[in-house]
Amino acid sequence: MAARRPLIVGNWKMNGLTASLAEATALAGKVQAQAPQAELGLCPPATLVAAMAMTLKGSGIGVGGQDCHARAAGAHTGDIAAEMLKDAGAAYAIVGHSERRADHGESDEAVRAKAQAAHRAGLVAIVCLGETLAQRDAGETLKVVGSQLRGSLPDDANAANTVIAYEPVWAIGTGRTPTLEQVAEVHAAIRQDLKARFDDGAGFRILYGGSVKPDNAKQLMAVADVDGALVGGASLKANDFWPIVEAKGFK
Ligand code: PGA
Fold it and tell me: In testing the pocket of ligand 1, which one of 8, 11, 131 has its CB within 8 Å of the most ligand atoms?
């Protein structure tokens, strides 16, 4: 099995106007100057996907959507199909982010259908999982994450079309992170489940997400089975994002 190429993805969430494309340009400049080995992606709000894809063309930085609908087209006001993201120049779709699971009541089943839609459209699905603080305190982390993993991954998932992002809900946007041991424990459990279910389970990238910052990235990215990061707040500015890329992006 080939070594897993690290992947660092920025999730801009509901942030960014046209002027923010300057940050993508700045990031592209750093990539051009220093050529990291890691694969890089930015997921801006849907309004910027096409423009960012244009801005980043040829830079080696991929663009992604933050969600997609399960269907390819139809009467679903306000929704965006995976095919539309692909058409706009996207390479990835984040699905099942905890903010969507919470704000829009997305179930594992819904997330699975979205991941399948991403695959149908030729996008890499970045499937998010993670426990709440109450679940962690109750000692249910591995049970919760295991069941989300089983329920959210379609059978057609493979190491090329699917990336897992472990994001403890209580670590997202809070400045709190799990201990390195806690991260290692969950990533090892996810790896074991992937290997048990998929022939190429050893090849899936498993990202850590939740308050990854320039000052903690090196430690987090060095944990076994952490193949990269899904970064929210610190991905909005190229100068914050770059040290995180550096933490995993160079041998
Ligand atoms: P954060 O968000 O880095 O701002 O904690 C991570 C995420 O939600 O993907």
Answer: 11
